[in-house]
């Protein structure tokens, strides 16, 4: 999944950020993006087909002893337009909250619905693989359970401390172009106001070419980090501005 996401962002420089967990991936286009004249059908079909193509193509690289057979992997997708930087930020926070199991203090989220994916899945499969339950019995035992109760099941029955699980499972995967980090300064709301005021100022052709070259030089990285707290966003202002930062110097 992460390999396909990196390949997609290489093919489509207009994608500024990706976030993946389980069998789902979210990709972000900046609101100034004019790719395909912003036609949602074209954007969705291009993203889905490109991601699927690289996923299938790379399968033998990761699973050489498990060749694909019909039915082959397929993905669907949809486009959602968020009206503000804060709305987008809240959505990305919610995606990571859904992966993990706690409500963040930095996001404007008040209600979480459904199962919190990874904690639920970890407990569900522990009950089956280690506890000997069938899927229906495991579902019944977990129905209506809280995060603390799932943690108790994992620790008391199977000596599994959920906090020791790998970060990729607890935080998901964040994919972005890696520029030099900046020191935290302006708040997210202040950055959003500046961007709104600068929207009508179109970059020159020369600046566009420079930005294009910087994007091409930037390394696309996959990290399993906290995107709920402000620090991730404040130290990577290019995610909001869509203007590439300084490419890190090679050691």
TrEMBL record:
Give the UniProt keywords, A-Z: GTP-binding, Magnesium, Metal-binding, Nucleotide-binding, Nucleotidyltransferase, Transferase, tRNA processing
Name the InterPro entries for this protein. Answer: Thg1_C_dom, tRNAHis_GuaTrfase_cat, tRNAHis_GuaTrfase_Thg1, tRNAHis_GuaTrfase_Thg1_sf
Q: Name one GO molecular function term.
A: magnesium ion binding
Question: Which EC number applies?
Answer: 2.7.7.79
Q: Which domain of life is it from?
A: Eukaryota
Q: Which residues form the tRNAHis guanylyltransferase catalytic domain?
A: 1-83
Residue ranges of the Thg1 C-terminal domain?
A: 86-229
Pfam families given for it? Thg1, Thg1C
- Share an example GO biological-process annotation for this protein: tRNA modification
In the record, the note on similarity to other proteins reads: Belongs to the tRNA(His) guanylyltransferase family.
* Protein name, UniProt field: tRNA(His) guanylyltransferase
Per the UniProt record, the source organism is Blumeria graminis f. sp. tritici 96224
Question: Could you read off the lineage of the organism from its UniProt record?
Answer: Eukaryota, Fungi, Dikarya, Ascomycota, Pezizomycotina
């Amino acid at each position: 999944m992460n390999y396909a996401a990196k390949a997609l962002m290489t093919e489509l420089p207009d994608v500024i950020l990706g976030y993946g967990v389980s069998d789902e991936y979210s990709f972000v286009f900046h609101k100034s993006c004019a790719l395909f004249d912003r036609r949602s059908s074209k954007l969705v079909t291009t993203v889905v087909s490109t991601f699927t193509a690289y996923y299938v193509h790379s399968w033998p690289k990761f699973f050489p002893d498990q060749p694909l057979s019909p039915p082959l992997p397929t993905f669907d997708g949809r486009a959602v337009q968020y009206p503000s930087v804060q709305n987008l930020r809240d959505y990305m926070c919610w995606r990571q909250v859904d992966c993990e199991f706690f409500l963040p203090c930095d996001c404007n989220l008040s209600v979480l619905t459904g199962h919190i994916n990874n904690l639920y899945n970890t407990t569900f499969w522990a009950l089956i693989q280690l506890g000997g339950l069938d899927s229906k019995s495991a579902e019944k035992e977990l129905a209506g359970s809280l995060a603390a109760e799932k943690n108790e099941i994992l620790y008391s029955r199977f000596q599994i401390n959920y906090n020791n699980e790998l970060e990729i499972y607890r935080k998901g995967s964040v994919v972005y172009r890696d520029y030099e980090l900046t020191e935290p300064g302006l708040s997210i709301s202040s950055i959003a106001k500046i961007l709104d005021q600068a929207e009508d100022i179109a970059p020159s052709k020369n600046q566009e070419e420079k930005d294009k070259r910087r994007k091409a030089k930037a390394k696309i990285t996959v990290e399993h980090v906290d995107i709920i707290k402000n620090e991730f966003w404040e130290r990577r202002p290019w995610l909001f501005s869509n203007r590439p930062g300084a490419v890190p110097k090679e050691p």
